[in-house]
Design goal:
By secondary structure, the protein is α+β, with helices and mostly antiparallel strands. The protein is about 25% helix and about 30% strand. Helix 1 crosses helix 2.
Length: about 200
């Protein structure tokens, strides 16, 4: 990424539930929780890039793992989805990883329960899956693209994996941050403080 925040090379795309992408785009949260997908080559989550597009994944979203007040977001994104036979996928945002915090303790993870759309059960499932591996709590600076990208659907876009090659170079000139600098840093500081473990200063 250049100094002005412009993506100038072909980036990766991180697959996330469409409802989570929408929450990030609306500034409801700045975190995602990752341990890797079932089809991951390494079986572990690895940060392929600190700058990437957010690719919405519509299948396998679970309503019961969303807080009551955020379930309308799922209805919203599903209402826009053309279904499994969709010929294109629309990407409307990109993200920069401000920090990658590793968590192994449920009590620590519970401290940020009010700062995302998921239920405690969702967070617990993410933490317990592949128990020996830490959970990545990614703090994301999200940018809305001035024009959504419409990518022709490809077989490589499907499956339970975290990273997708976004294809040919995709320009993101003029992308605007969802949160201003002051608000984003305030939220990052809040999360860092909450996730600080005993002995850390």
């Amino acid at each position: 990424m250049s100094n002005d925040g412009t993506i100038t090379t072909s980036p990766a795309a991180l697959k996330e539930w469409a409802v989570t992408v929408r929450a990030l785009e609306q500034g409801r949260q700045i975190v995602v929780l990752r341990k890797g997908g079932i089809s991951e080559e390494t079986r572990k989550f690895q940060l392929a890039s600190k700058d990437f597009y957010l690719m919405p994944a519509y299948e396998h979203q679970r309503r019961e793992l969303l807080k009551e007040g955020d379930k309308e977001l799922l209805d919203e994104v599903l209402g826009e989805w053309e279904g499994p036979e969709a010929s294109h996928i629309v990407i409307s945002s990109r993200a920069h990883v401000a920090e990658d915090i590793l968590i192994t303790d449920q009590e620590v993870l519970d401290r940020i329960r009010e700062l995302h759309i998921w239920t405690d059960d969702f967070a617990m499932e993410r933490l317990k899956w592949k128990r020996r591996d830490p959970l990545h709590v990614l703090l994301l600076r999200v940018y809305r693209l001035p024009q959504p990208l419409q990518l022709p659907m490809e077989p490589s876009f499907t499956g339970c994996k975290s990273w997708i090659a976004a294809g040919p170079p995709l320009e993101a000139d003029g992308a605007n941050p969802v949160l201003d600098d002051e608000e984003f840093e305030r939220r990052c500081s809040e999360i860092r403080c909450l996730l600080r473990t005993d002995g850390e200063h």
